[in-house]
Design goal:
Elements (H helix, E strand, L loop, with lengths): L8 E5 L6 E5 L11 E6 L2 E11 L12 E4 L2 H12 L1 H14 L6 E7 L5 E7 L9 H11 L3 E6 L2 H8 L11 H4 L9 H6 L6 H4 L14 H8 L8 E4 L2 E9 L4 E6 L3 E6 L24
Parallel strand pairs: 7-8
Antiparallel strand pairs: 1-2, 1-4, 3-4, 3-5, 6-7, 9-10, 10-11, 11-12
Helix pairs in contact: 2-3
Length: 291
C-alpha cells in the first residue's frame, strides 16, 4: 500500500465479539487483514486484529486515531502472558470479594491491555445499588501490580454473553456468545408484528430479557405488513365484504371473516379496502426496551 496518497483506514477488533473500531493506518508500508497491530485507545495501548481494510473511506471532521505499528513478537508474548493470567486474577478476585463480605456481587470477567497496565473487571449484582469496591480494587493493584483498574457492573444481557451456554431456543451456543457484537433495543411490538405468542417462555431469553432474535426478521415482517390491512379492517373480497381476523405477512395474505360464508384466506391483490391509516393505538406504552 506504499505510495498511495489516499488515507488508509482499517477496522480493528479487540476481541472475538467486540465492536469494530476504525483507525487511520496511513503511512504504514504494508498492512493486511488478520494483522495484529498496536493502537492507542482510551484504555491505553491495545493490540487488535485488522478485520477490515476500507478502499474508499470518507474521512469525517473528527480525525481517526493512528495505528502505531504492527505488533512485535515481544508485545504478542506479553499479550498472551496477561491472557493466561486471567484465570488467576479472577480466582483471586472471587476469593477476596468473599473475604470482604461482598455477597451481592458476582465477578464475571477480566480484560487486560497487552502490557498489563490497564484492566477492566466486570461484575453483576441483583440490585442497582452502588457497591463500594475500593478495597477490592486496591488489593488487586497491590497483588498484580496493575496500575489502572476499572471495575464496572454489567446488565443481564452482557452477563449472558460472558457466561455463554445453551440458548432458550435450544441452540448449543447463545447468539450473544457466538456472533452478536452489540445489543439492539427490543420491544414487545416486534413480537406482535411477527405474530409470536406473548407468553414469557416464548419471548424471553436466558438472560430474563426479551430475546435478541425478535429483531432478526422484524424489518422484513414490517415491510410485508405495509401491503396488508390491519386486523379488524373491513375489506372487499371476491366472496363479499368481511373483516380481517388474522394476518400472514410471509404469505402476503389475510384471513377474512365473511358473513354467511365463514373464514377465507386471500392474498393482498385479491382484496380491496380503504387505506386511511388507523388511529394511533396505545401499543407504544407496552414497548419495553431491553437494556
Amino acid at each position: 500500500m506504499a505510495g498511495n496518497s489516499n488515507p488508509v483506514v482499517v477496522g480493528i477488533r479487540f476481541g472475538k465479539l467486540s465492536k469494530i473500531y476504525n483507525f487511520d493506518a496511513t503511512g504504514l508500508d504494508e498492512i493486511h487483514l488478520k494483522d495484529l497491530v498496536v493502537v492507542e485507545t482510551c484504555k491505553g495501548k491495545q493490540i487488535g486484529e485488522v478485520v477490515k481494510i476500507y478502499q474508499d473511506y470518507e474521512m469525517k471532521d473528527e480525525p481517526l486515531k493512528k495505528v502505531e505499528r504492527i505488533a512485535t513478537a515481544g508485545e504478542l508474548v506479553s499479550n498472551e502472558f496477561w491472557n493466561l493470567r486471567k484465570k488467576e486474577v479472577l480466582e483471586y478476585c472471587e476469593k477476596r470479594a468473599a473475604e470482604l463480605n461482598l455477597k451481592d456481587i458476582r465477578i464475571l470477567n477480566a480484560e487486560f491491555n497487552y502490557d498489563g497496565s490497564y484492566m477492566i473487571l466486570t461484575y453483576s449484582s441483583p440490585t442497582e445499588e452502588k457497591v463500594d469496591l475500593k478495597s477490592l480494587k486496591y488489593d488487586i493493584q497491590k497483588s498484580f501490580s496493575i496500575n489502572n483498574i476499572e471495575i464496572k457492573q454489567i446488565g443481564p444481557r452482557d452477563v449472558a454473553k460472558v457466561i455463554g451456554g445453551m440458548g432458550a431456543c435450544g441452540i448449543p451456543c447463545r447468539c450473544c456468545s457466538s456472533f452478536l457484537t452489540d445489543f439492539s433495543s427490543i420491544s414487545i411490538k416486534m413480537a406482535k408484528e411477527q405474530g409470536i405468542s406473548l407468553t414469557p417462555s416464548e419471548i424471553t431469553g436466558m438472560c430474563g430479557r426479551l430475546r435478541c432474535c425478535l429483531e432478526y426478521e422484524n424489518e422484513y415482517y414490517a415491510e410485508c405488513r405495509k401491503s396488508l390491512p390491519k386486523k379488524k379492517k373491513k375489506v372487499i373480497t371476491p366472496q363479499g365484504e368481511g373483516k380481517v381476523v388474522e394476518i400472514f405477512p410471509l404469505r402476503h395474505s389475510v384471513l377474512v371473516e365473511i358473513p354467511c360464508v365463514g373464514r377465507r384466506e386471500f392474498t393482498a391483490d385479491q382484496i380491496k379496502y380503504d387505506e386511511i391509516p388507523a388511529k394511533q393505538d396505545d401499543s407504544s406504552k407496552e414497548e419495553e426496551e431491553a437494556k
